[in-house]
């Protein structure tokens, strides 16, 4: 990424991202992480590495950010996120692929990298404040429908 930014500067960069909605094995709790940059609680999110399968990226990000081993079960949502500008002036826009994942066992999460200050399980009926996109993603995932949702 740094090499690419050296060539394009702060110009808009199109990226593929993943959101991982991780449920515990009983499917009564969801994993959330508290972001170090703005303090918001979110599901695990991250960027797909070049050539990486998106479902594997979701599972990798869960392990990197929370120490939880998980399995991606299905694609829940596909959407283009609004353009964002970072404090250093870099601009990006993401195609976000949201996956429903399940923890492989009852595990205790922890902030496993510097991207988050906390990682914990929340009962599905007592989630921390999250933006509408994440709440919508979770509601759709809990409907347990086999198809992914797309914007038309």
UniProtKB/TrEMBL annotation:
<dbReference type="InterPro" id="IPR015797">
    <property type="entry name" value="NUDIX_hydrolase-like_dom_sf"/>
</dbReference>
<dbReference type="GO" id="GO:0016787">
    <property type="term" value="F:hydrolase activity"/>
</dbReference>
<dbReference type="InterPro" id="IPR020084">
    <property type="entry name" value="NUDIX_hydrolase_CS"/>
</dbReference>
<dbReference type="Pfam" id="PF00293">
    <property type="entry name" value="NUDIX"/>
</dbReference>
<protein>
    <submittedName>
        <fullName>8-oxo-dGTP pyrophosphatase MutT (NUDIX family)</fullName>
    </submittedName>
</protein>
<keyword id="KW-0378">Hydrolase</keyword>
<dbReference type="InterPro" id="IPR000086">
    <property type="entry name" value="NUDIX_hydrolase_dom"/>
</dbReference>
<feature type="domain" description="Nudix hydrolase">
    <location>
        <begin position="13"/>
        <end position="144"/>
    </location>
</feature>
């Amino acid at each position: 990424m740094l090499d690419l930014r050296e060539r394009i500067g702060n110009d808009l960069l199109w990226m593929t991202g993943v959101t991982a909605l991780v449920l515990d094995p009983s499917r009564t709790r969801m994993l959330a992480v508290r972001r170090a940059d703005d303090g918001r609680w979110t599901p695990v999110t991250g960027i797909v590495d070049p050539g990486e399968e998106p479902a594997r990226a979701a599972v990798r990000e869960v392990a990197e950010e929370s120490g939880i081993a998980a399995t991606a079960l299905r694609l829940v949502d596909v959407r283009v996120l609004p353009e964002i500008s970072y404090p250093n002036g870099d601009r990006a826009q993401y195609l976000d692929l949201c996956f429903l994942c399940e923890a492989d066992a009852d595990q205790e999460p922890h902030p496993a990298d510097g991207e988050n200050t906390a990682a914990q399980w929340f009962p599905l009926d007592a989630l921390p404040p999250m933006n509408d996109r994440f709440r919508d993603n979770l509601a759709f995932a809990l409907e347990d429908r086999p198809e992914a949702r797309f914007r038309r």
